[in-house]
Amino acid sequence: MDHETLGYETLGECLAQQGISRRAFLKFCTAMATLMALPPGSAAAIAEALIKAKRPSVIWLSFQECTGCTESLTRSHTPTLESLIFDMISLDYHHTLQAASGYGAEKSREDAMQKFFGKYLLVVDGSVPVKDGGIYSTIAGRTNLDLLQEAAKGAAAIIAVGSCASFGGIPNAKPNPTGAVPVSELIKDKPIINISGCPPIPAVIAGVLAHYLTFGELPELDDLGRPKSFYGETIHDRCYRRPFYDQGKFAKSFDDEGARNGWCLFELGCKGPTTHNACATTKWNGGTSFPIESGHGCLGCSEPLFWDAGSFYTPLSAPTANIESIAAGSAVVGAGIAVALSVADRAKKRRAQQAHEKLTVKEL
Ligand code: SF4
Ligand code: SF4
Ligand code: F3S
């Protein structure tokens, strides 16, 4: 991306206008570097690059969705890491957040697409209904399908925010009456990054934007198009209840003694062992908590087809009490395989993770 050719002020200028201190900004960059598992010392380079970067024009299209993804991003405490997302970009169209409506709103989208053709970022939340010509979801009289295809033409890259845009999500669940599909099924000629989750973690969206502005390209992706730095490990890999799993201590109901003692929720259907996301370390609401810490198992919301995968309260498979025996190569099935593979990977990432745990987003 050519920072010099984008039309808005630099991020540094914008932060100064907002009264955000250099100290807070450097903490943000440190948090970003750690979240992205970049080498020590990267924070300064990120800060330097971001300060000079021109804020990219962003067109945000919301299709067949519940507004949860936007709520996730906007309902955060301030000042937080998440709030800086909006300082990093120039949000030129977002029909939920913008003040303009009707003709004026659509004109701002068209103007931004024309002025920044080939350079703007296209963010999409929600799936795209394609059945019956896409008539089941329209904006300003045009189908989501039509709007997506038009906006994708001039986009430098597309960020699919949430499991609906990434994998089809709940609209795509059986019987999928509207023929809902993810963005990647319709657009094949643009870089697409999937930030899955229902909704996704705001800090992950910030991390992807920071990476794009710093390096001019999308971060490394996994085989489902998600940034590896955030989706490289399972919830189970980093879960604070993991010692109970390893000891074979499982809550049998949501109000038994095991539940009160904070034991593992595997037998209550937790999908943490097969779910890739950063909830267990990044957490939610300014680093306050995440579903398992609130007493409920992970639903697997950042994985494809999570809604159709079976009951949220049915265990994945028989739990294995001794993780070391799994790692040593004993016969395992289902979730146990994912667990064994993650053991080898965990030590590698532990250092960066520990640094992150010390630096919570609350510090901003
Ligand atoms: Fe709503 Fe979840 Fe879809 Fe986001 S991913 S729009 S939160 S249903
Ligand atoms: Fe945590 Fe769930 Fe794994 Fe238990 S099964 S350790 S609750 S992620
Ligand atoms: Fe979703 Fe599981 Fe995180 S349900 S919010 S991926 S803990």
Molecules bound to protein: iron/sulfur cluster, FE3-S4 cluster
The succession of helices and strands, N to C, reads HHHEHHEHEEEEHEHEEHHHHHHHH
Q: Detail the poorly predicted runs.
A: 1-6, 320-364
Helix content: 25-40%
- Spatial arrangement of strands, main beta sheet: 2-1-3-7-9
Structural category is alpha/beta
Note the overall shape.
globular
Give the overall pLDDT as a whole number. 82
* Count of distinct strands: 9
Question: What is Rg?
Answer: 21 Å
Biggest beta sheet summary: 5 strands, parallel
Can you describe this structure?
Helices cover 38% and strands 10% of the residues. It has three domains: 55-230, NADH:ubiquinone oxidoreductase-like, 20kDa subunit (Rossmann fold, 3-Layer(aba) Sandwich); 233-328, Cytochrome-c3 Hydrogenase, Chain A, domain 2 (Irregular), CATH 4.10.480; 329-364. It has helices at residues 11-18, 22-35, 42-52, 68-74, 85-88, 102-115, 144-153, 162-167, 202-215, 228-231, 235-238, 242-247, 257-260, 279-282, 323-327, 335-358; strands at 57-62, 90-94, 120-125, 128-129, 138-139, 142-143, 155-161, 180-181, 192-195. β5 (138-139) and β6 (142-143) form a beta hairpin. Residues 1-6 and 320-364 have low confidence and may be disordered. Strands 2-1-3-7-9 form a five-stranded parallel beta sheet. The chain has a two-stranded antiparallel ribbon with strand order 4-8. Strands 5-6 form a two-stranded antiparallel sheet. The longest helix has 24 residues, at 335-358. With 364 residues, it is α/β, with parallel strands linked by helices. α2 (22-35) crosses α3 (42-52), α2 crosses α9 and α3 (42-52) packs across α9 (202-215). It binds iron/sulfur cluster (2 copies) and FE3-S4 cluster.
